[in-house]
Design brief:
Length: about 325
């Protein structure tokens, strides 16, 4: 997919960017309102500062991991004022997570390692949060059984975030091409992985193995989408036709709201609510019984869209 590029038809191009801030955003199709109103402006100011002093995106991502994990640790305590500090730290961690992507786009400093770190950052935050809630619940009198929903919710979170991120990049690929998307495929990643050796490239090969498995998981949940991407790669190697860009965007854009719901903002708002009422364990049930059905609906809907365009292209 790396060499597949296309132009967006004039009538479907996004509105011309009127500011440097808007240039730091991915796309109006995929941005959530809370992000546009709150996180992106904060992230933009952080990105401006980092660009001025010469800080690159990856260190910003790494710092966000420390703040996010620290937030999770503070959710272990039952004192509300400590939890509030954790909430502020988690909000700041997500602002840094926004800043690293904006900085990468502002400075054109994008990398595969940066994408991997960015995806792993949120996983580190929520591992800490889930562990803290389980330990907190045990202190409150729960048995060790609390780890069962804690682990199930954690696994659910990984799949939810992975698929939301994947579908966003698929959408960006169809409306912006490879320059505006971070869409990867396991076939190309496998080739890169095979060129690395455990002796000379142990660290990078370990990271590449993790990311290859991560991408394969995303692809396994989207078989019809893989067929569509395969036929697109084969039939339109020199550029997508305008009708496909236009129609795919129209049919797929409504699904972007579901990728937002199962990402950071919705889950954190409810997490904060349950921390305020000292019922943090409810977060696990929310992840399993509310967000998982939304994930399933999102995947089924995306597969229907992909099947429609696959059949239309091959016929």
């Amino acid at each position: 997919m790396e060499n597949l590029t296309h132009k967006i038809p004039a009538e479907k191009k996004e509105e011309p960017k009127s500011s440097a801030f808007e240039n730091s955003l991915k796309s109006s199709d995929t941005e959530e309102q809370i992000d546009i109103w709150f996180y992106r402006p904060i992230g933009y100011q952080i990105a401006l500062f980092c660009a001025k002093v010469g800080i690159t995106p990856n260190p910003v991502t790494i710092v966000s991991i420390f703040f996010g994990v620290a937030a999770g640790i503070l959710f272990y305590y039952q004192e509300l004022w400590i939890n509030v500090i954790g909430m502020l730290l988690l909000v700041f961690a997500n602002s840094l997570d926004s800043a690293d992507g904006q900085l990468a786009r502002m400075t054109n400093n994008k990398s595969r390692l940066g994408r991997i770190l960015d995806g792993a950052a949120g996983d580190f935050w929520f591992i800490a949060i889930h562990v803290a809630i389980c330990l907190r619940s045990q202190n409150e009198g729960w048995s060790a059984f609390i780890w069962v929903p804690g682990v199930v919710a954690g696994a659910s979170h990984v799949v939810q975030s992975a698929m939301a991120d994947y579908y966003r990049n698929v959408h960006l690929f169809f409306i912006k091409g490879t320059s505006g998307s971070e869409l990867d495929n396991s076939r190309e990643l496998q080739k890169e992985y095979d060129t690395l050796t455990w002796g000379k490239n142990f660290g990078m090969k370990l990271v590449a193995r993790f990311y290859l498995n991560y991408t394969k998981m995303q692809e396994s949940f989207s078989p019809n989408l893989q067929k569509l991407l395969g036929v697109v790669r084969e039939k339109y190697s020199s550029g997508l036709p305008e009708w496909l860009i236009t129609e795919f965007r129209a049919q797929n854009k409504p699904l972007m709201k579901y990728t937002n719901i199962i990402q950071f903002n919705t889950r954190v708002l409810f997490l904060f609510l349950w921390l305020f009422i000292d019922q943090a364990w409810i977060y696990f049930l929310f992840d399993i019984f509310i967000l998982n059905p939304i994930l399933i609906y999102m995947c089924v809907s995306q597969e229907k869209v992909s099947r429609h365009f696959y059949q239309k292209i091959v016929s």
